[in-house]
Write a structure and sequence with these properties.
Shape: globular
Number of strands: 17
Radius of gyration: 28 Å
Number of helices: 9
């Protein structure tokens, strides 16, 4: 018995994965849980594990290629089984890996049960009138046959919630199509170009910031002299960014409004302060999370931070390591001349602090907030509390 080995969804945001290399070869015996291959997800390199015991059956999908989640890469069969006659979806003849033609083969579709010679139903006068009229959005689902008076109410129910949602969906789709058409026309009017498909991490970042900008946000800033904090970090070989993150966590603990997130059901108030730190990664941006940043010692946080950076450098960071931040910090102060910048509040957080490079009047800290969770006075009090802590690191960073 043979079962397909498919590209798994190794994170909630993963749509495709890059098959880096096979760790097993056709005919190799494998046990449940054995690593079959290495797969690069949107943010890490992870192992594709066997779902059962037996033998790996080829041919295998090509390495260093990107495949959609759910696409067959190989097969797993009874121990000693030979190679399969058919090829994996990713190796179908005449199609590149990940090609939609490979995923949707007409031959695999179930046969139509309706005979080809079945007579077409006669159209009613009402249906003919609807076809002649300008196209209008239809309800999301088709109701069961109703009585004449119910049909009349359906025609008159143009203000119903379902129909309004259908109108809104069609309108949004038309707007997106129009914007994409205008974008393509603008690009085509310029110099020659080629389309480079985005890598998984860049695709996830684009989707995340697009969702984030849908939330109402406001910004408030303050200028501080962080010379003392930088000297403190230099003399102890400590991370300045981590010191700022720890100070933010203590301020959040004092003002728990900043440890909440907006949901359609209400505010999600967290019981622990987990600070996410934005950092540059290959092909994109990652936000590893320092857990329980307010109630653990700075030395413990420093150990976690070193481990996170090492895992990111070796593409070994797990999805849970960069999810669930309740407050965010983004530091570009290492780039001279960047005296001001704004950051976007990621989904699931109330605020993010942007730290710029030192200027003539100090370092500008810009706090971007979700206006559904906190307000201007809350932000002003938060920055005041943060400024007080950043001025005396010896009291909370020892």
């Amino acid at each position: 018995m043979k079962q397909p080995v498919k590209m798994p969804a190794l994170s909630d945001t993963m749509e495709t994965g890059r098959l880096l290399r096979w760790l097993k070869q056709p005919g190799d015996a494998v046990a449940r849980g054995d690593a079959l291959a290495e797969v690069e997800t949107d943010k890490a390199v992870m192992e594709l594990e066997a779902f059962g015991s037996g033998s790996l059956i080829g041919p295998l999908a090509a390495e260093d290629r990107e495949y959609p989640v759910g696409e067959t890469l190989a097969w797993l069969g009874d121990e000693g089984a030979g190679a399969m006659e058919e090829k994996p979806e990713a190796q179908a003849e005449g199609a590149e890996p990940g090609d939609k033609q490979t995923q949707e083969k007409p031959a695999q579709r179930p046969p139509q049960k309706t005979p080809a010679t079945a007579p077409a139903p006669e159209e009613t006068d009402e249906e003919k009138a609807q076809q002649a009229a300008p196209a209008a959005p239809a309800p999301v689902s088709q109701p069961a046959p109703a009585k004449p008076e119910a049909q009349a109410r359906a025609h008159e129910g143009a203000t119903s919630a379902v129909l309004e949602q259908a109108w809104a969906g069609r309108a949004a789709s038309r707007q997106d199509d129009s914007a994409n058409t205008a974008l393509r026309q603008e690009i085509a009017a310029g110099p020659p170009y080629r389309i480079e498909p985005p890598l998984p991490l860049r695709r996830v970042v684009a989707a995340t910031v697009s969702r984030a900008l849908a939330a109402p946000q406001f910004r408030i800033g303050t200028q501080l002299d962080l010379t003392g904090l930088k000297n403190y970090a230099d003399t102890r070989s400590a991370s300045l960014t981590l010191l700022v993150a720890r100070a933010c966590a203590l301020a959040v603990r004092e003002q728990p409004a900043f440890n909440a997130a907006w949901t359609p059901e209400g505010l999600a108030r967290r019981e622990r302060v987990d600070v996410a730190i934005a950092m540059e990664a290959e092909h994109g941006l990652l936000t590893p999370v320092i857990r329980d940043a307010a109630d653990r010692t700075f030395a413990q946080l420093a150990d976690d931070w070193r481990a996170l950076k090492d895992n990111i450098a070796h593409h070994r960071v797990a999805p849970e390591a960069y999810r669930g931040g309740t407050f965010y910090v983004s530091n570009l102060g290492m780039f001279a001349g960047i005296v001001q910048f704004d950051a976007i509040v990621p989904p699931g957080a109330a605020a993010i602090l942007a730290v710029a490079a030192p200027g003539r009047q100090g370092t500008l800290l810009t706090l971007t907030c979700d206006h559904r969770v906190v307000f201007g006075a809350d932000a002003a009090r938060f920055l005041a509390a943060l400024a007080e802590r950043l001025g005396r690191p010896e009291e909370w960073a020892e």
